[in-house]
Amino acid sequence: MTAAVSLSIAAVVLALSGCGGTDPAKSSPRSTPPVAKGNRTPAPSASASASVKPTGPADAGLAGSWGSSSYVVLHFTGSRVELSGGGTHCLGRAAKEDGVDTIRLTCDKKNAPRTVGRVYGLTDKAMTVDWEGTGADSFFRSDDTAS
Prior knowledge:
By secondary structure, this protein is α+β, with helices and mostly antiparallel strands. The protein has a domain at 55-142: Lipocalin, CATH 2.40.128. 16% of the residues lie in helices and 37% in strands. It has helices at residues 3-17, 46-50, 142-145; strands spanning 56-57, 64-68, 72-77, 80-85, 88-97, 100-107, 116-120, 126-131, 135-141. It is globular and about 30 Å long.
């Protein structure tokens, strides 16, 4: 065998054996989940989200229809919520969780971007919903968007 062939075989064996890579058993685990682009905080894991229990009814000021500049519409009737727009349709509930109005939706699209959101800055005319893993949308009462 020539030296060039021996060297090539050695290089292939090293590459296939994973030599030079990081040993996952020796690497330190991530202390926090990755942060989605444009999101201020990491989204909790699915198990963390599922374990949160409602602590009370959502704010009555949410009642009615709300529109956003991203062509998403939220409609609240009691604790029921409907989201339409962005090519998807979702139904769910709103409730207080840890003192924050939280929206939890089930959507017709498997990977819908807006399934869990927290409401901030609620006024008579506007609010912001910070969606886990997606970022925030500003909403305005639908009757105000028509003027």
